[in-house]
Design a protein that fits this description.
three-stranded antiparallel β-sheet, 44% strand, elongated, mainly beta, 21 strands
Length: 247
Amino acid sequence: MNYYSEETPSVQSVVKSDFEYDKTYYATVRLNLNNNNTLAGNFRANINGGQYKVSNALLFNTISVPFKLTKRSIKDADISCAYTSFTYTGKQIDVAKYVTVKYDGKTLVNGTDYELSYENGVDVGYQTCTLTVSGIGEYKDSVSKKLTIKPPKLAAPTLSTKNSAIIVKWKKVTTYAVGYQIIYDKVESFDTSSANHTEDYHTTTVTDLNTLTKTLSAYTKPGETWYVKAIPHDYCASETQSDFSSE
């Protein structure tokens, strides 16, 4: 709380740490009076950026000025999540280490400035999990984001060859899958953006969960080296990223 005279500037401050947010308080400002018990000039009280003018005709040496502390809105923060999809584990997902919240360049602290909560954070689904960032402490309001939970990963398939074909076998998935996707490539990383990548990147889909083998022969030739992986196939396969939205 500061007050000063427009003619004879002087600043004094009062700090109080136990104010409650969104509650009206009244600050008593003591004024400098001249020998005639009137103000030496036009005074203004500055409290939280608000100015309160005091008339020259005031015959008392104090004024009472209302003020209120307001929390910052988490909606105005810069919130990001490093990933938008997570693999099913059968347990509640926890993305706290992937979430960053900044306000005016300051990195906020989980548990002090905000807290995270989840809705539908266990079961597999495309953007069916809702992550909510709620302001606490000096912050208020909440922001939400849709996340995807993918089916569990498959163990590495077993491979064998017959003539120029590759025979792929894998273990059955019983949780949240509608089929299997087989990916085979001549580049071990399966990275289609790789500089040495060829056009020999292929996929095929098996829609029967009870079918646990697939023969690849359309593109393979004797003497070639191929890399193969199998993944559960479901409606999460063509995931797109979503942004945070306010609530």
